[in-house]
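for the recovery benchmark. tokens below, seq after
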């Protein structure tokens, strides 16, 4: 690998990896190979830092948290400020290791980013290393919400905003404290739209998990009045046996849902997926993620069957 030239590993060309909806194993291998070469052979620390961070995010996406941490720590050594937030997440959630709330708190407390502040609010809310302080948590979230609401006219808002993360936490806090606001429900619906757009542009399993929590909160507010809008609703529908019909490019397709050894299985195009999260993360039509073409799918209907 190291015998290849810098011309072979053109950084601008390698960044086109992020434009691929469903990269092949060969494309993934080439990306990792290129990032490793560029990290070792870049003449500038700033470039090595960027390539290390890219590789860390690649390993995050495939859930190899040990290697994610390795390259994040390399970023940190090179002075990358945003790597601290990601390392804090690893320690907070115990990704690939036991949680260490003290280390997580140190990263988030030092952070000036919105993500760092969001996670700091969690530490105050649940008393993780920090003393439980719901008012401090609320103060942080309300200030963050005020900030992001000022950016709604920015065309990049739907992709880069942390509005869904903030709206989920603030709405949940209001529900728990029985504080009735006129905005929580609308904010949750808006967060849903933003997450759908984000996932269509930048696929990440964490977006699907976050969507599930947002939809669970919406269901807790409106109860049985909840109706299916798109595939994301499968995250909260209590289905044991059903067929989901939908149309894409004028062709009707279907998904079978059934129980197998107490596990909900989704069968689509002769492939099995273990639960709705796995289905939304991995399902494809003609090598395109269903979540990237969600706005081209119509007439979704669930036909539940008796067991």
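predicted aa per position
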């Amino acid at each position: 690998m190291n015998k290849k030239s810098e011309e072979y590993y053109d950084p601008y060309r390698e960044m086109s990896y992020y434009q691929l909806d469903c990269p092949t194993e060969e494309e993934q291998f080439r990306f990792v190979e290129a990032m490793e070469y560029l990290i070792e052979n870049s003449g500038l620390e700033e470039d090595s830092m960027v390539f290390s961070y890219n590789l860390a995010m690649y390993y995050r996406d495939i859930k190899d948290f040990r290697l994610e941490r390795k390259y994040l720590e390399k970023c940190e050594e090179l002075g990358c400020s945003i790597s601290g937030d990601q390392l804090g997440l690893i320690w907070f959630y115990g990704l690939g290791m036991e949680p260490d709330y003290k280390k997580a708190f140190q990263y988030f407390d030092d952070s000036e980013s919105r993500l760092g502040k969001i996670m700091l609010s969690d530490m105050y809310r649940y008393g993780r290393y920090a003393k439980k302080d719901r008012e401090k948590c609320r103060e942080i979230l309300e200030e963050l919400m005020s900030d992001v609401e000022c950016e709604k006219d920015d065309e990049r808002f739907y992709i880069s905003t942390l509005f869904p993360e903030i709206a989920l936490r603030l709405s949940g806090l209001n529900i728990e404290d029985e504080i009735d606001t006129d905005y929580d429900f609308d904010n949750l619906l808006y967060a849903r739209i933003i997450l759908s757009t984000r996932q269509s542009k930048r696929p990440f399993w964490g977006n699907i998990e976050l969507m599930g929590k947002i939809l669970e909160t919406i269901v807790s507010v409106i109860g049985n009045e909840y109706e299916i809008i798109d595939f994301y609703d499968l995250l909260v529908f209590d289905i044991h046996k059903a067929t989901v019909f939908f149309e894409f490019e004028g062709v009707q397709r279907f998904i079978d849902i059934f129980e197998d050894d107490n596990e909900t299985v989704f069968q689509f195009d002769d492939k099995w997926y273990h639960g709705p999260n796995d289905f939304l993360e991995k399902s494809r039509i003609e090598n395109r993620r269903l979540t990237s073409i969600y706005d081209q799918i119509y007439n979704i209907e669930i036909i539940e069957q008796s067991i």
